[in-house]
Amino acid sequence: MKILGIETSCDETAAAIVEDGWQVLSNVVESSVTQHQATGGIVPEVAARDAAKKIIPALDKAMAEAEMTIDEVDAIAVTAGPGLPGSLLVGIETARTLAYIHKKPLVPVHHVTGHLCSNRLHREKPPHFPVIVLTVSGGHNELVLWQSDFSFEILGYSVDDSAGEAFDKGARILGLGFPGGPEISRVAEKGNEKAYKFPRPMEKSGDYNFSFSGLKTALLYKVQELQESGLKITGNVQADLAASFQEAICEVLSTKLFNAFKEFPDTNEIFISGGVSANRRLREMIFLRSEKMQIAFHYPEKLTYCTDNAAMIAGAAYWKMQEFTENQWDWREVRPFFTKDLS
Ligand code: KG4
Ligand code: ZN
Description:
The protein has helices at 33-39, 44-66, 85-102, 111-117, 163-173, 180-188, 213-228, 235-263, 280-293, 311-323; strands at residues 2-7, 12-19, 23-31, 75-81, 106-110, 131-136, 141-148, 151-157, 269-273, 296-298. The chain is of the alpha/beta class. The protein has a 5-stranded mixed beta sheet with strand order 3-2-1-4-5, with helices on both faces. The two termini are 20 Å apart. The structure holds 5'-O-[(R)-(carboxyoxy)(hydroxy)phosphoryl]adenosine and zinc ion. Residues 111, 115, 137, 139, 274, 308 line the site of zinc ion (ZN). Zinc ion is lined by residues 111, 115, 137, 139, 274, 308.
């Protein structure tokens, strides 16, 4: 089954075609990041206008790359939420129109479910369910028990900022560019992660929730203290701050992931997904620990599957269609949603 996926929940405008939930026939991602770099963060109105401009060319490109016409597509999938309302509507209304004109089933997909299923792209073999997934990006931060193809239980989530948001805000405090995650990661390569001691928020809270807004404030206070003592936040000082800040985020994420793995005795593997799963230090930290414990550790096959893309939405829709076979997937039923419910 070939599914056309559309994703416009934030600042990316993406279209892709995926066969049977894993074979990626095309994957087009158009970003508006350069426009947000000027403002140091995403302006929702700018992102939505950009999506409106790019969605049709992205669809054309996805069709051309897959060497297909829309008539050969079996179904259409679209991110229905959560996300920026204006951006979401661009994708949803485009998908509804296509489904109506071409008489195709239309499958609404939860954005986080897409990130979870990004770990199935390019992989014919399914995970050894049940598995634990840490899914972390700018807009969300969850620990999930993934029980079967399309069955998920959220174990915990961030009560305030997500890890990606902490990276983005932290980068701003350090005078780095947007998006902050790749910038902090790049600068941290030259830094000493033990140079500054930052809190590990909620590391020992006894649940699976996270909190990163206090950590960002701790970085802000440290930067102000250093500036008051006459130091400039550049060179080694900036690199040490970035490395220490990154270490604190990654350590909390990793600790909670392994806690969940240990506390759910039947789980077999661990996965990470979302934009922050591209982080080199996070991968290294989890890899070292999983190697010691002889646990299989996976992350998306390509970096483009970590950050927002439409292949993960088309992939998730396939597994959703297998689970809810009775559903008519009527385009009239598809509207934006903002719930945490992953189904
Ligand atoms: O999944 P994504 O593209 O969009 C959302 O669903 O939010 O994730 C974007 C987030 C941004 O906060 C960005 O700073 C972060 O992922 N990110 C990273 C890295 N690459 C992207 N964070 C840390 N290290 C990276 N290498
Ligand atoms: Zn995302």
